[in-house]
Design brief:
It comes from Lentisphaera profundi. With 173 residues, this protein is an all-alpha fold. Helices cover 74% and strands 0% of the residues. The protein has a domain of 121 residues. The protein contains 7 helices and no strands.
């Protein structure tokens, strides 16, 4: 049979039979996913601060080179961990468990924060969010995004301003 030159173009579309199921799964666990990814952001921020501390220790004297090397290694670990948690990679759960287990010793604030991180990662919702099936749901529903509230954005902006002011005042003295 000859091709019809005047027919509308056609395209093979992927099978969307699971799209509704994926959207339902994603909407059910979206808040938990966002909370877990926020933990990844905290680890990445920690890597940044450790990196700055490592650079500062390299310039403070010869005896601090070893400390700077340790801080730089920790910065690399935290950076890798932050990116892995943000991508919801299963392998990052073990490292998060170890670091948060150690962080439980920081009574009282460290205990509360790290207990919450352990809950996020190892709860039933955490198991689902770190699963391959959930990553498939994320890939199938890129249009679904978690919306951060304006109040939280303002609070984070103010926090960053305070941190920037603290760092600037430290270097001014």
């Amino acid at each position: 049979m000859e091709a019809n030159l005047y027919a509308s173009p056609t395209a093979d579309l992927q099978d969307d039979s699971n799209a509704g199921e994926f959207e339902q799964i994603r909407n059910t666990y979206l808040k938990h996913e966002a909370s877990v990814q926020s933990v990844g952001s905290l680890y990445t921020l920690g890597a940044l601060f450790l990196g700055f501390a490592a650079i500062a220790s390299f310039f403070s004297g010869e005896t601090e080179v070893l400390i700077g090397g340790v801080l730089l290694a920790l910065a690399a670990l935290y950076g890798w961990l932050g990116m892995s948690v943000r991508k919801l990679k299963r392998g990052s759960k073990i490292a998060v468990g170890i670091l948060s287990g150690i962080g439980l010793l920081g009574f009282p604030i460290g205990t509360i924060i790290n207990a919450y991180i352990l809950y996020l990662v190892f709860s039933e919702k955490g198991k689902i969010v770190f699963s391959d099936e959930y990553r498939d749901a994320i890939a199938a529903t890129p249009h679904i995004k978690h919306k951060t509230s304006t109040i939280l954005k303002v609070f984070l902006g103010l926090l960053l301003l305070v941190l920037a002011f603290a760092v600037a005042s430290t270097f001014m003295n």
